[in-house]
Hints:
The chain is α/β, with parallel strands linked by helices and about 450 residues long. It contains 19 helices and 15 strands. The longest helix has 20 residues. The beta subunit is responsible for the synthesis of L-tryptophan from indole and L-serine. Pathway: Amino-acid biosynthesis; L-tryptophan biosynthesis; L-tryptophan from chorismate: step 5/5.
Amino acid sequence: MAANKEIPYKIYLEESEMPRQWYNVRADMKNKPAPLLNPETLKPMTFDELRPVFCDELVKQELDDTDAYIDIPEEIQKFYKMYRPSPLVRAYCLEEKLQTPAKIYYKFEGNNTSGSHKLNSAIAQAYYAKQQGLKGVTTETGAGQWGTALSMACSYFGLDCQVYMVKVSYEQKPFRREVMRTYGAKVTPSPSDTTAVGRKILAEHPGTGGSLGCAISEAVEAATSQEGYRYVLGSVLSQVLLHQTVIGLETKTAMDKYGIVPDMIIGCAGGGSNLGGLISPFVGEMLRGERNYDIIAVEPASCPSLTRGKFVYDFCDTGHVCPLAKMYTLGSEFIPSPNHAGGLRYHGMSSILSQLYHDGYMTARSVEQTAVFEAAEQFARVEGILPAPESSHAIRVAIDEALKCKETGEEKTILFGLTGTGYFDMVAYEKYNNGQMTDYIPTDADLQAGFDRIPKFPGNEI
Ligand SMILES: *Cc1c(COP(=O)(O)O)cnc(C)c1O
């Protein structure tokens, strides 16, 4: 490869270089992620059991541990071409500001109206729902990026889209809500009285601002109680991680073109889809014994599932209507402190990433939100992009690592995922700018309360 070619600020790919297949990293994993379990029988969920909830093709993808490459249907490729390839940016300005010998690259996924990587999976999930002749889909959204992406994807295919939005976000982010409605989605604050599980949660916790786990339970109920509807999820599931591998595949092709090999790959981790998507092709090389990378998942100190959670089977939702997944979890009833503004508030983690982490293929770090916003501000001022708070977790660690290189003189190549923009997060930025942002790290006792609610059965001891 032309290793000495001068590296441009932005590396784009030609359309002809865009991926035509997603890469399923599970195929190369010796220790496969544990299967989803039926909470009643404690047996692996079968295709037929999952069909009432998810589209058939997506169930196949969810259960597929063996096919390394899965074709991206033409229509999805076409949609991808509207806003992809996303740029791989050499952060020359940040490097100069930090006076670091490190070479920093980021893959920017915020160049579409939804403002994040979530559209990569939303369009795939909407496509399969349409193919199956469904009327519509239901989902939950926390910060709003997923709901926005899904409403865009559904309007493209003429599908009905029903979004349960965590009540605090619904109230704090009216503009997110209106973008979704502009794309034709019906948005309901969760918990709501439109579902049995919502009414139950409201009766037990009157006045609650809701949580992602609650909203998932409501959306699943809405899907399974309406003819011609299925449920879709924007993170955590293996199918979502699969669709997000378009990020890593493009990155790898772009880097290969210039002979760039990252030493370190950093990403923020909520449910794990962007990080999993970014690292998959690189982890594939590690799994096949071809190369090694230093991979770091970054999570909020206020929702530390990898760094402080337990690797056990747990419910994916608060209402316990979903299957059990084996993952690093804080317990399905864990809700981060209300002062937490930075997103990434899901209690669990992708079972693929959980297994890779457990097997030592990656490490994890937790960071406090004031430090995250400090990094966000520093980045915004030199790189010209206002980052999402979620993405800024990765920026924090990328900057920390670049500063270490400054001390040691090492010229490491650092790659991180910049998952989105923060235009709808100005309440959080305002808090930071006013010096009113505080850090809350849960105590061991706080976490224990969540662990106590993890289901106990033989083989699932904490
Ligand atoms: C949803 C979201 C995340 C976290 O989700 P993952 O599944 O962990 O990738 C990160 N960044 C942005 C901008 C998001 O919208």
